[in-house]
Amino acid sequence: AGDLAYADQYSFFDAARPGGGGGTHQRRWDTFSRLWEPLMSAVPTLHAVGNHEIEADGVDARISADTESFRYPQDYPFQAFAARFPSPTQTHFGAIDGNLYYSTDIGPAHVVVLNNYVPFHQGTRQHSWFISDLQSFDRRRTPWLIVMVHASIYHTYQVHYKEMECFRETYEELFYNHGVDLVVSGHVHAYERTHPVYRYKLDTCAPAYLTVGDGGNVEGLYRNFVDEVNPNTGKTYCEAADPNSMAKDGYGPWYQRQVQPSGCTTISFQDRDVYSDASPTPEGLVVNDNDPSKFWCQNSQPRWSAHRDPSFGHAMLYIESATVAHLKWYRNVDGGTKVADSVTFERLESCPNSGSVHKGDNRHSNAGTGSNNGIPMVLVVVVALLIVLLIFVSVISIMQCLGCIGTHEMWNAHKFVVMEDNADSTLNEL
Questions:
Q1: What secondary structure does DSSP assign to 125-161, as a single string?
Q2: Which end of the chain is more exposed for a tag (fewer CB within 10 A), N or C?
Q3: Given the DSSP bridges, would you call strands 208-212 and 182-185 parallel, antiparallel or unpaired?
Q4: Strand order in the sheet with 339-346
Q5: Quick one: 427 exposed, middle or buried, by C-beta within 10 A (0-12, 13-18, 19+)?
Q6: Does the global pTM surpass 0.90?
Q7: What confidence tens digit (pLDDT) does each residue in 80-132 have?
């Protein structure tokens, strides 16, 4: 979900010196690509543009709310990224505009990759393209709808907190109305998973948001939640902010502010009941000066946040069927083998935005477990295949002893069936 090589963190002249000056060191891109080549040469991968893919050294690149067309190489701000990681929609090598935003089908999922660093507001090419894509994809063929965008829309970490409010205000209703199931992001160097949430309130028919910016970087983990108490001040990190004095459209880092249109809300206040803290005194909360019943952030983990952990790791999504998928997250500190967070997604027909079927929130966030009620369909299929294989081997053995047939052709035929089943499993694993 973006921020791949962090080549922009190194001097143009010195690949070994982080922060050594403006520019992007191309050899860092090359070493990153060689590191990942064994995987990427065998497994299809999709990538979103992150802020560390923005390059301006020696290029007249502009990131602004009204720059939608670029020329390569004169003013294209994502040159190294786009040249090395083509999207599935590119018709020929060098047609790198296709990397800005695109969509593709992977097994039973339609995956849409958006870009929050080029114009995205209503009336822009990206916004119009997204609406067209939502209206044209076939839910019968790809029942799961997944969106990937670099910056996290819902999370509770101090760094980048509520940085995407302008984007959320523009796209959240589209996500909801068209039945997006899962929104995957990076940017925040940690892990967090939400319950289905819409406008900061739990909603079974809304998408869940997954922050997986925990894959590794040169900047380290983001360890502090916005509701944590800063030991140096004795106040929460939330209290250190002062959104009431911030300009309505002036919050966030430069690379995000520059692409946001004037007047797009970047500071939002929510009702008190969206937070899990029910104490009468809202300690640690920043109250709206104009409406004391609304707050900017919380002094405890909100209800919509299901699981959060400032650790490096990786997540695996297994799509079992048109209605059931399983997510498992593993921490590096545990050796990458112990499940630290698991959840089952079930799409529900009862949601008005389902198309034919949609998802609900049968989620089990018990750390280290992946239990489900009943016997998982995958297990049933595996057991059935083993029984069939056992019977087949027995029949072959009998027939071989009787001299009726040779075994070579039959074994190849059976291996083909097993490989087909494995191929389907791989195809459905994102």
A1: HHHHHHHHHHHHS-TTT--EEEEE-SS-SS--BSTTT
A2: C
A3: parallel
A4: 313-319, 324-331, 339-346
A5: middle
A6: no
A7: 888 888 888 776 665 666 788 999 999 999 999 999 999 999 999 999 999 99
Query: Cα(56)–Cα(300) distance, rounded to whole angstroms?
Result: 40
Alpha carbon distance 200, 268 (integer Å): 10
Going along 168-217, which residue ranges are E strands?
Answer: 182-185, 191-194, 197-198, 201-202, 208-212
In whole angstroms, give the CA distance from residue 308 to residue 89: 34
Is 160 part of the annotated catalytic residue set?
A: yes
Whether 77 contacts 55, CB under 8 Å: yes
* Given 47, 127, 155, 160, the catalytic residue: 160
Q: Which residues of 331-342 are buried (b: 16+ CB within 10 A; e: fewer)?
A: beeeeeeebbbb
Both tokens of 327, joined, read: 């997510």
Could you give the CA distance from residue 82 to residue 365 in angstroms, rounded to a whole number? Answer: 37
Tokens 């108490």 appear where?
Answer: 229
Direct distance between the N- and C-terminal alpha carbons of the chain, in angstroms, rounded to an integer: 13
Burial bucket for residue 231 (CB in 10 Å: 0-12, 13-18, 19+)? exposed
| E strand or H helix at 288 | strand 287-288
